[in-house]
Amino acid sequence: MDMQSSLLDRLLAAGLLIDTGIDGLYGRSGTFEDVIARFEKLIDAHAPADARPEVIRFPPGMNRKHFEGSGYMKSFPQLAGTVHSFCGCELDHMNLLQCIAEGGDWTEGQKATDVVLTPAACYPLYPVVAKRGPLPAGGGLFDLQSYCFRHEPSKDPARMQLFRMREFVRMGTPDQVMEFREDWMERGQKLIAAVGLDVELDTANDPFFGRAGKMMGNSQREQKLKFELLIPVTSSANKTACLSFNYHQDHFGTTWGLTTADGETAHTACVGFGLERITLALFARHGLDTADWPADVRKALWG
């Protein structure tokens, strides 16, 4: 039995995760949710004391037009998820029921709605902020959390199809957003150390699709636009990215017409926390009974 299956089996047996019959789609127990809630409070405690981010919580679905405008399908079509629905008449409904009764594929009659599943917590933010007009003189800072979807079913419990991301997004001048990212790269390492996890900082790239995607990934690494904090979850040799620090340059600024107070195209950066992944790392490292976790870890999370 490999380490991934072993950890997943133990989590399911302990009732921390709940099997739904779909790889990467799990229920969470109250204990699992409590750890996530405690860790989110720890994130807040490690944020700059003078930071006053605008708190926004988007649903796990976003505007299809905004999704299309983001260019996500150009880079990650393999990960996207859409929302389809029945849009037929009574006869279509009768045919649908007959198809189900005969064991056919009833989804062929479904049509795409105006909602797609949110791929990253920050994606709904940019068009919303752009609609407001130019950013204030100091730029913008936002605190987000959302369920996100990636179509990559796996037995690895750290690679869920539906999971939560907590993000801080900075918008402004290149200097403002780079200072933000550098600051959080330091804060993130201290945050993870506070809960007794081993961590490694490394350059990374997003999983761009196809041959052109490999070139984009190489470019992203060469420019050091993306860093990740890697933490052992299912394997010590192949660690899991649990935090990411991303500099988008002016991509979203150009895409959505985001501008600074003086009319320049805004740059953006974000720090993202994979809440389920971090929680899984804690259970993998400290055991499945939170009462037995080290005293310093319990103090950091529960006070």
UniProtKB/TrEMBL annotation:
Organism name: Stappia indica
Domain of life: Bacteria
Protein name: Seryl-tRNA synthetase
Keyword Ligase attributed: yes
Transmembrane segments: none
InterPro entries associated with the record: aa-tRNA-synth_II/BPL/LPL
UniProt keyword annotations, A-Z: Aminoacyl-tRNA synthetase, Ligase
A GO MF term: aminoacyl-tRNA ligase activity
